[in-house]
Amino acid sequence: MLIESRPATDPEVATLVAAQQRELRDADGGLPGQATVTHDDIRYLVAVAGGRAVACGGLQALDADTGELKRMYVRPAYRGRGIARQLLAALEELAYRQGHTTVCLETATYLPAAIGLYRSCGYEPIPVYGEYVNNPHSLCFGKRLLVAA
């Protein structure tokens, strides 16, 4: 498997982000959510297997010291193979190279696999922040990057 950087405008990134958002809406009981959007200020990494983009994740700078992980997603057929863990490590490395000392993220209370992944990779619960404050399903996690991942 190869992990590579892709622009926000990449059609495979857009497809993965759309699938991620659709799955989140379905898991949340089909409630309307935010429109599917890729942001130009997010640096996306994509996991490629057999020439196909099978997972994505992004990093967005919140400030000089803090990066936020965004849009983590692995296609269902590729789950359980450690791809998310490898992608998370690559995103942490990217954050470190960009000068961030901390990474944070938001996930949902109804995503136990994601919560388990983040906790097993050293993420600790932090107060809900930013746009997530009023969302009763939001959980936020953070991790200090003391050395390169």
Describe this structure in words.
The protein is of the alpha+beta class and 149 residues long. It has one domain (2-144): 3-Layer(aba) Sandwich (Aminopeptidase). It has helices at residues 11-27, 83-97, 112-120, and strands spanning 2-6, 42-49, 52-61, 66-74, 102-108, 124-126, 138-144. Strands 1-2-3-4-5-7-6 form a seven-stranded mixed sheet, sandwiched between helices. A hairpin with a 2-residue loop joins strand 2 and strand 3 (52-61). The radius of gyration is 14 Å and the shape is globular. Residues 31-37 have low confidence and may be disordered. It comes from Micromonospora narathiwatensis. This is Acetyltransferase (GNAT) family protein. Keywords: Acyltransferase, Transferase.
Which radius of gyration do the C-alpha atoms yield? 14 Å
Examine the secondary-structure arrangement and name the CATH architecture.
Answer: 3-Layer(aba) Sandwich
Strand order of the largest sheet: 1-2-3-4-5-7-6
Query: Percentage of helical residues?
Result: 25-40%
Largest sheet: 7 strands, mixed
Number of beta-strand segments: 7
Q: In DSSP terms, counting alpha (H) and pi (I) runs of 4 or more, how many helices? A: 3
Instruction: For the record, give the distance between the C-alpha atoms at the N and C termini, rounded to a whole number.
Output: 18 Å
Shape: globular
CATH class: Alpha Beta
Question: What is the CATH fold-level name?
Answer: Aminopeptidase
Task: Supply the number of structural domains.
Answer: 1
What structural class do you assign from the helix and strand content?
A: alpha+beta
Write the CATH homologous superfamily: Gcn5-related N-acetyltransferase (GNAT)
Question: H/E order of the elements?
Answer: EHEEEHEHEE
Q: Give the overall average pLDDT.
A: 91
Estimated share of beta-strand residues: 25-35%
